[in-house]
Predict the structure.
Amino acid sequence: MMADFVAGAVGGAFGVAVGYPLDTIKVRIQTQRAYNGVWHCMRSTYKREKISGFFKGMSMPVSTVSVSSSIIFGTYRNCLHKICKLRYGNAEVKPSKLDIFASGYAAGAVQVVVTSPADVAKVRLQTQMHPHPSIQSASLVSKPKYHGPVHCLMTIVREEGFLGLYKGCSALMCRDCPSFATYFLSYAVLREWLVPAGQNTPEAVGVLLSGGCAGILAWTLVTPMDVIKARLQVDGLGQQKYRGVLHCITKSVKQEGVRVLFKGLGLNCLRAFPVNMVVFFTYEMILKLTKQLAT
């Protein structure tokens, strides 16, 4: 089962690289009220910070997402095997949809412990507005508060305590558990549907489509909690506005309407398709390769 951890790590790293610019735009739209929409945010980011502005804080997610993706896929597959062995006496038997859903839910819960600090640092860096050196005036613009992922984490611990690294953790848990349960279940169902007649496994196109659609379905379900999670994580910057998940939901809806809970939904879906195409395709290819090398 070690192959699942390795395949998940590589797939996750490729996925981050593909979807990170859109993720930055999504986070800024969700947490800041200065933008009129996606294109306005993109233009403003490029005008002020150039291309580097779209990749702020990426070094942390690439490394940590590799770890968290490894944990997600490894936990999912191992949990699925254990459930099948307990329920049916054979780990290789075809699992039920409930088995897949439960394993995905467990994978989401386990990885939150690892991803929360990195996710907080990512969001803080993504929402930190600082002009590109080529267009800034040093005499008029203050230096950025955070100089990179590690400095960001250290600053949070110093100013907010160790628990500051887990701001929004409850919202992250509420987002990731149902998200990964839906993610793995929809992928399994779509993958099975797209298996050509007379074959046991889908072709590359089937894997790509299944992964992309699974990502869209999962993000459509959890975007409201993703908005709340991002706002709670940024809440350490300046005066604290939210007392918790429910207070953040009610205050955000009261001030900006119900639509605020779906900020970034289009971007999430636009980003989810190519990212999860890459994640699942890479994952399946590495598993296939390891099986071939083992024989």
Remarks:
- The chain is about 70% helix and 0% strand.
